[in-house]
Design goal:
Layout lengths: L4 E2 L7 E5 L4 E8 L4 H18 L2 E11 L1 H19 L3 E8 L4 H11 L5 E6 L5
Length: about 130
């Protein structure tokens, strides 16, 4: 399995897979010039990972997402939901700043898209 480690920039989140914990973490802000191009390797990696190992925890701490990044996240959730429907151990944690109500709204919208475990927690709650 190849590693996934994308360095955070001003307009893109850090995306890193922790092999020991089986956690894919996405953190920062997401408004790249071309979201689909940015997220394509992430989507490909997730598909490859789930084909080899049918479990994944997605830990998201994104304070802002533009509309095209939101679409890419929905595509990623579709892949995770498909794995979950096939018996995969999939769970999602969405971390939000309680002073950022849009992040909470977005998390609640995403939660409606999947049937796997989807926890919404404030940033001040322990990891």
């Amino acid at each position: 399995m190849r590693t996934l480690d994308i360095v955070q920039s001003q307009s893109t989140p850090q995306i890193r897979y922790d092999h020991q914990e089986h956690v894919l973490r996405i953190s920062g802000e997401s408004y790249p010039e071309n979201s689909f191009e940015f997220y394509a390797p992430v989507t490909a990696w997730v598909k490859e990972h789930l084909a080899e190992e049918n479990r994944l925890r997605l830990d998201i701490d994104v304070s802002y997402m533009n509309s095209s990044s939101t679409k890419c996240m929905l595509d990623l959730l579709d892949i995770l939901e498909e794995a979950h429907q096939k018996g995969g151990a999939i769970d999602i944690i969405w971390r939000y700043d309680k002073d950022n109500p849009r992040s909470l709204d977005l998390a609640e919208e995403f939660k409606e898209e999947v049937s796997c475990t989807f926890s919404i927690v404030t940033l001040d709650q322990s990891r």
